[in-house]
Amino acid sequence: MSIIKVERKVLEKNDALAARNREVFRQHGVFVVNIVSSPGSGKTNILERTLEHLKDSLRVTVIEGDVQTDLDAQRVAKFGVPVVQIITNGGCHLDANLIQNALESVNLSGFQLLIIENVGNLVCPANYDLGENMKIVVASTTEGDDKPLKYPGMFRNASALIINKIDLLPYVDCNLEELKSNALRINPALKVFETSCKTRQGIAEWCAWLKDRLADKK
Amino acid sequence: MHELSVAQNIIEIIRQSVPESKWNQVTAVRVEIGAVAGIVPDSLEFSFQAITTESVLSNAKLITEFIPFRVHCRTCNTETENEEGFAMCGKCGSTDIRIISGTELRIKEIELEETIETL
After folding, report:
1. Facing B13 at nearest CB: one of A2, A8, A124
2. What is the pTM of this model?
3. Is the Cβ pair A3, B110 closer than 8 Å?
4. What is the pLDDT of residues A61-76, one digit of tens each?
5. B119 touches chain A (CB under 8 A)
């Protein structure tokens, strides 16, 4: 028997492509946010409220990732921002290669912010670097307060946690303080926002923080 | 369930690391999986088996090695382990920590069964 020492990261190919994407983003001076969450937590809704809030002060472009349909791209297009839809045809996450391919249809010149909405899935997207500046994880009150403990990978790699559907808190079994403390046990550096896309609570705070991150990068 | 695409990446690295004439001699590939890598070892082994059956790599078995989640505390200078992936020192409770291990998803080595060539 003979042994070949390998010592290579399994996802090194994705990491290399992500590094190339990151360089493209840097050259264009565009800040990139990767939004992740389980299905139905309100990623697209957060994106809509964010566009509504930022589109007059920032030039924003969007990449939508979904398993099927371009329904989300249609929603986003209503805000007058360019949007490219990636359909993964069953794939459970976006990877750096899909983003690289999508970039052929995305004009980054003159844009300051690219928002990538990942496939709704709280497991797989955590492993795949797309070349983004930061990941934002959305968790809604209807999902309960134990998600960070059950799906720690997504919370460990994120810069901010948006707790959405905060207006439903009186009606659901979710202890807000418990949800926050669970998330911070996994990642003490997480910046936490509480939002409602219905009442627009917390949207201004989240957008202000996001704009500060863009300013930090410059 | 991204174990299938992870298994495809592993196969690609095997093909790059072993000369093509020896692919059918690969008997095992050892993969280190961290406690918080987000990979289910059984699913990965199943996926690997499913896509190597009836291929030139059909003799290869995927063997996973578990790497625990360990943190180093900058406050009390201790290393502790926890199963939950908490970014917290197990001794003093400080969150000023550095993750030492547990996020790995790495191919360690490939084993080949050399066939003895007879004249």
Report:
1. A8
2. 0.92
3. yes
4. 999 999 999 999 999 9
5. no
